[in-house]
Design a protein that fits this description.
5 helices, five-stranded antiparallel beta sheet, alpha+beta, Translation Initiation Factor IF3, SIMPL/DUF541, signal, single chain, 241 residues, Alpha-Beta Plaits, 26kDa_periplasmic_antigen, three-stranded antiparallel beta sheet
Length: 241
Amino acid sequence: MHQGSEPMRRTLTGLLAAAMMAQLAAAPLFAQEMKPVITVTGEAGVKVAPDMATIRIGVDTLEGTAAEAMQNNSAQMRSVQEALRASGLQDRDLQTSGLSVQPEYSYPQNGERVLQGYRATNGLNVQVRDLAKLGGILDQVTKDGANNIGGLSFGLQESGKAQDEARVAAVKEARRRAEMMAEAEGVKLGRVLEIREGSEPAPRPMMRMAAAEAAMAPAPIEAGEMEFSTSVTLTWELIKP
């Protein structure tokens, strides 16, 4: 063993002991610096009138052959699309949502299934940006061949402002509740330590109708209101007044 090893070992041992004592001494100091906190969730909603509608318009046809079913279906759907464009809708407002041709059978109680023909279906998602025209549009497309109408929902073309108003209202509600509870305990709110936003549900009124009901001129439709709601959770330090 080298002669210098023992002094070096004693030096390292002393340094480690000093470091451990420093950590132990600092722990109570950190504990003393921790301040009490309060965490509160605020919820709020903003109601607005919708300014647009989305609806699914479909054409169903049943013919003896697949080709006939598709041909007649396409002719009816073209008439529907022409009526929609004539009412002021643009290409961006129309989107095909489904197209199919399937055999259709009947099933007698005694015997094999019987082919009844071929059913072609074509669906179109339509956005109407002028709600005053909605009833008249539905009336017109049923006259031009649409026989499957449903999935009516209302929305906003620009929803960002309503969502931001809901966020601000939720933060104010959280602060109101936090201040009330802090005052009851004889303390005050300090600085904000954390802000977390919850989910943003935006329920929309839904409506479904049969083609016979939609054939009224014009179809009576009420858009009602939409509500954008959210929750925000905030954490504050608590300080003495």
